[in-house]
Specification:
Low-confidence stretches: 1-15
Shape: globular
Largest sheet: 12 strands, mixed
Number of helices: 2
CATH superfamily of one domain: Lipoprotein localisation LolA/LolB/LppX
Number of strands: 12
Radius of gyration: 18 Å
Structural class: mainly beta
CATH topology of one domain: outer membrane lipoprotein receptor (LolB), chain A
Strand order of the largest sheet: 7-8-9-10-11-1-2-3-4-5-6-12
Strand content: over 45%
Distance between the termini: 62 Å
Order of helices and strands: HEEEEEEHEEEEEE
Length: 174
Amino acid sequence: MKKLLIAAFLAEWLMASLPVPKYFSADFTQVVQNKDTKKQLYYSGRLFMKMPDEAKWDYFIPLKKSICLTEHKAWVIEPELEQATLFRLNQSIPLLQILKSARKVGPDTYKAEYDGIDYALKVDKDKRISSVSYLDEMGNRVTLRFQNIETKPFDSSKLECLIPDGFDIIDGRY
């Protein structure tokens, strides 16, 4: 009986899915490591997400840039170039699907697979996502780390992407 209880507990623990917050905001650092040279590029900024399909990534380092994602489109606003580019996404933001498919593999570690990509996710003591790591389509290792995490509602203006007057608008959907 004792073995049966332990087996049931382990099965439940391993199948536990990751809690999916409706809102998520955090400071982030992003490291992209080249698969061949092992050189690393570093980025940092602030992220605001509202599930299921709205996000705004404000990059501060190395250059200021905003990426605004909604449903099947993305705006990339680059102040240094004085331009805003609109892209069509083939699918909506997969983060919700990634989080929903994540399965516990350790005390603070989850694994997920989505569209042929394996994701490793870590959570903090409050079960909030603290990092995500995966290989991108070029084979480079991408690691996102989150700090100052909040999962409470925020003002929807945080998701707005404002394009300053005079910026070139590029339609990259075609």
